[in-house]
Design brief:
Strand content: 25-35%
Radius of gyration: 14 Å
Helix content: 10-25%
Number of domains: 1
Distance between the termini: 33 Å
Strand order of the largest sheet: 1-2-5-6
Order of helices and strands: HHEEEEEE
Length: 87
């Protein structure tokens, strides 16, 4: 369940969530910001992304993605964690 594309900030994203989910996502967001302040929050593909990592796939595709992503889904909440691996 992606956020409305007009939502451009994590604060507005959190404010747009339904009761219950809003409080839970806010608590997780605040915990992430408090523990890793160097990972600046921003909106990424309809989710809150924290930090940025450069990736390269085995096929050679490259891009930038968030280190951590937090999202409200239709039936659940998701926390995605990225890492940099060596092959």
């Amino acid at each position: 369940m992606k956020a409305d594309p007009s939502i451009k900030s994590p604060g507005r994203y959190i404010a747009s969530l339904p009761d219950g989910r809003r409080e839970a996502i806010r608590a997780i967001h605040e915990a992430i910001v408090a523990r890793v302040p160097e990972l600046k929050p921003r909106m990424v593909s309809g989710m809150i992304g924290y930090g940025q990592i450069r990736y390269r796939t085995k096929s050679g595709c490259e891009g930038d993605w968030a280190v951590v992503l937090l999202a409200n889904q239709k039936q659940y909440m998701s926390l995605y964690l990225g890492c940099e691996g060596k092959t």
